[in-house]
Specification:
This protein has about 290 residues and is α+β, with helices and mostly antiparallel strands. The chain is built from eight helices and six strands; from the N terminus they run βββαββααβααααα. The protein has a four-stranded mixed beta sheet with strand order 1-2-4-3. It has a two-stranded antiparallel sheet with strand order 5-6. Strand 3, helix 1 and strand 4 form a beta-alpha-beta unit. Helix 4 packs antiparallel against helix 6 and helix 6 packs antiparallel against helix 7.
């Protein structure tokens, strides 16, 4: 089944206590890569979030954005390093007495020192919030997948059209290839006749033609190329991830097209090879976006 790797999904779930917004954006990638951007208090369920995404998106790079609004999801606590604070206070007073410095140490001065006082955030461990996040994530992922499937259907139509054109070019090459050898034989015999005025060994000419025909034989390459086209078409109907397999088949088709081009000693074959390689380049670009 053709599924695109490009998609977007959004979900918003509101409860009495929280509002959870999740966005999922996916783009092309050789493998499966999931990046989650979320509030720090949700880090402990990051693996669950990634697993939820992987259940529906098997290939591509996914960016997951999670935003939370509502009641405090963390507990804040003032942490004071009393020992260090006391040492600092005593040091200031001793320095003032030693150097006869006027002035007093104020509470405001002590409160601005991050070394002594800072606010710690403790995870509230809110099960309701975690369930909401997982539910919103799944909804956003399913919406993203729906978009990927819809785009995949359009890709499939384009792929089918390119494959039909490719198959037509292959059949035309099969029909045209024998005439290249016949035309070479006629040109060779005509040239020899002109040189030696009709006195020549026809068997030598036939040997020369046979050698040329062997060098020019592209039937094997055409057979393999057609086989790859058929495998490509069959793979489009597979239910598993097919992108990498299709990419491999396009590479193999390119290999056969290059071999045909290197053997070509005919303008028609050369033109057909250019047409085939143009279609294969288009297939390659399309395959890069298939899951």
């Amino acid at each position: 089944m053709v599924i695109s790797m490009t998609g977007f999904g959004r979900s918003r779930i509101v409860s009495a206590s929280f509002s959870v917004n999740v966005e999922v954006k996916t783009v092309n990638h050789r493998f499966s890569e999931i990046n989650v951007r979320m509030p720090r208090q949700l880090v402990k369920i990051e693996d669950k979030i990634k697993k939820k995404v992987n259940e529906h998106l098997r290939r591509g790079r996914a960016e997951v954005f999670i935003m939370i609004e509502g009641e405090a999801t963390v507990t804040r606590k003032v942490h004071v390093d009393w020992k260090l604070l006391e040492e600092y206070y005593l040091f200031i007073n001793q320095a003032r007495d030693k150097f006869n410095i006027e002035g007093k140490v104020t509470l405001q001065e002590l409160l601005t020192r991050n070394e002594f006082i800072h606010i710690e955030e403790l995870d509230a461990g809110n099960e309701e919030l975690e369930n909401l996040v997982l539910k919103a994530t799944e909804e956003a992922v399913l919406q993203c997948k729906q978009m990927r499937v819809a785009e995949g259907e359009e890709l499939r139509k384009d792929l089918d059209n390119s494959l039909l054109q490719l198959d037509a070019h292959i059949e035309e090459l099969k029909d045209h290839a024998p005439s290249v050898v016949t035309a070479y034989k006629e040109r060779l015999m005509k040239k020899i006749e002109e040189l030696i005025q009709g006195q020549f060994d026809e068997s030598r000419v036939l040997i020369e033609v046979a050698i040329f025909a062997d060098k020019m034989d592209i039937n094997e390459e055409l057979t393999r190329l057609k086989s790859h086209v058929q495998q490509f078409t069959q793979t489009l109907n597979d239910q598993e991830t097919i992108g990498r397999k299709l990419d491999f088949l396009v590479q193999e088709m390119n290999r056969e097209a290059n071999t045909i081009g290197s053997k070509a000693n005919d303008s028609t074959i050369t033109k057909k090879v250019v047409d085939i390689k143009s279609l294969l380049e288009k297939l390659k670009e399309q395959v890069q976006n298939i899951e």
